[in-house]
Here is the input.
Amino acid sequence: RAAPIYRYWRDQYEIAAVDSLENLPQDDPDVVILAQPRAMDPADLATLDAWVRTGGDAIILTDPDLVWPSDLPFGDPRRPLASGMLSPLLGHWGLEMVAADGQPNTARLRFGGHAVITRGVGKLQPAAKGDSGAICKASGAGTIVQCSIGQGRATIVADADFLNAAQWRESARRSPRESEAVRFIDSLVRDHLGSTDAAK
Here is the structure.
């Protein structure tokens, strides 16, 4: 059964889950969302970088220390990854993700007037070197970074635990529209799409 936030996205947007980004230039969606993805093929990372550089928009949720209980065995591809696997892409954009030492058990992320309560969050900091020409600005103590990359933009959030509906209020699990997590993601989407009402 699809997770509540995915059911909401499916109802709200024209959305397609994909296993590869090889068709990204042809599909040319309004925005790409990566949520704690598995290790991606280098060709997919290169495709995403090139697509953003030519005007694409990406929202990336990658957590260095995901706290997401699962009954699935280790190695099962459906099991959420404990740590983000996007270091090559982030490094190319001049960023490094680290676990934020000393973070409290709960944290609050704020964006666009919306706030979401989540578990311990990571931090994005400048990498030793990046060669993409990305211009990045951090907020939320480095938890949220917005980058201009060529003609496009990427927002990177060093957390993904808030997507887990088990942490939501019971009313939000029944009706995801009431979830702070949903409103937070919607604010990111609106920021990327401006006045566009619908996304694909």
